[in-house]
Amino acid sequence: MNLVKRNPEWYGPASVDAFFDRFFNDSLQKNHNGFSPKVDIAETAKAFEIQVAVPGFNKSDFSIDLKEGKLSITGERKLEKENKEKNFISIQTEYGKFYKSFQLPDNIDEKGIEAVYENGILELRIPKDETKKVESKIAVK
């Protein structure tokens, strides 16, 4: 009797949407040598916080730009292919280039934006500018 490791994905995705998401995302990642890291976005009373999960990067691997209210984050992690001492059996971590962009609201302090990379998480803190209120009253007709 042979033991075969069971892979739950062989028996079908949890939903049709998950199947198509996985199919198209995996196809795009492999064809374009890139990936899309997971992102968490939170809002506090004083700032917006963006956390990007990108383990294995160096601080110098990132480029962060702000232009016309659009925050863009790019990065690249290269696969170590030319190592004769290693024979990779499986590679499940993500390599290649990524690009994420966010349209920021008008009430931010552009000069106060900070970025910190620690423990595989790139965290951006985007402070709010209290003098720029983004409020409007809309009348119902």
Automatic annotation (TrEMBL):
* Coiled-coil regions, chain positions: none
Residues forming the SHSP domain are: 30-141
- A Pfam family assignment: HSP20
Against InterPro entries, the record matches this protein to:
A-crystallin/Hsp20_dom, HSP20-like_chaperone, Small_HSP
- Family membership: Belongs to the small heat shock protein (HSP20) family.
Protein name from the UniProt record: SHSP domain-containing protein
